[in-house]
Amino acid sequence: MKIRKYLASNMKEGMMRVKKDLGMEAVILYSRKVRRKGLRGFFTPKQMEIIAAFDPKSKESSSNGAILKKVSEKDQEISAMAEQLNELKDQISEISTVASINDDEEPSSKIVTKKKSSAYWRSYLEHHDLDPTLLEEVFGEAEADAAKPGRMSHARMAEILRAKVAAKINITNGCGSRTQIFIGPTGVGKTTTLAKLAARFSLQNQEKVGLITIDHYRIGAVEQLRSYSEIMDLPLEVVMNPQDLFKVMMRLEACDRILIDTAGRSTGNKEQLDDLGSYLDMLQPADIHLVLSATTRRQDVNYIAECFKPLKYNRLIVTKLDETNAYGTVINSAYYTKMPLVYLTDGQRVPEDLKPASEVDLAGLLWRAR
Hints:
45% of the residues lie in helices and 18% in strands. The chain has helices at 11-22, 40-43, 59-70, 72-96, 114-127, 132-145, 154-167, 190-204, 221-232, 245-251, 270-280, 298-307, 328-337, 362-368; strands at residues 2-8, 27-34, 47-54, 111-112, 152-153, 179-183, 209-213, 236-238, 257-261, 287-293, 315-319, 341-345, 354-356.
């Protein structure tokens, strides 16, 4: 007997693949909706998992195949209804349950005292490295909302906390100004993020995009951006000092969008930050994006936000969500900087691994992490 597993976007597509692979005699043993593994599964729709079997020696399989062929149209209708029921079941499940810290904890739907539920979720959010001050604010507001007499489930407390966390995050869309600048410490992925946005503006929005780099300190930095510019057929200018910026901007005057890469700066080096500031002063008005990595410790996020504040950044991007399973940094970054979060990145692919913050359930990252 042949038994095979298939993944498809829906039941109809899955049935077609089963019939094509195993023939009309195949029998569907099992089907369910599943998420892809890892963080990427959080951003993509669920898939239909189908387990199918076929026994070429069995008379019964031939009989089943005849039945399957005879009622194929009806079967598709039933499959569509089953898919809708599964989606409804998933929605109910997501509302009524939340992730627990580990398998030994109490079920999230169990009724407990408010004090015990509060302690449970406080420990959970501390695990995600959420800022202590932010935790106090969130729990103070949540416990005030949950002050009604009686008991509540872990899930209900989680819903309240989730709403309070979401209210702390300022989000904006990614259009912004004609001139967009990317600053931040070394190694956070500024150049790759710029390339992803250049592809989005150029290929998806059909805008004429120009690139500028003032990162002539890091070995290979110019060549990395030049490779992206050649692939996308975009003009690239290399600026060696602030005085050259005016001429470069004039050469890119016909561009709808100008994206500017900068050298990663040592967070505590005031001289380097002042040097970068002399370039930024020549580029106003502009959107200045502070780029931070999701792998950065809570204490360092606050330190970086304060050190880069003199550069007057007004937007925020968080990168490398695929390199961590504790997402407190996303929330902490928005909380510390008080700036709108615009994009998240979760991989190296250009331009796929870039998500507008407005399309991601940011507070839900804390509860949906696996």
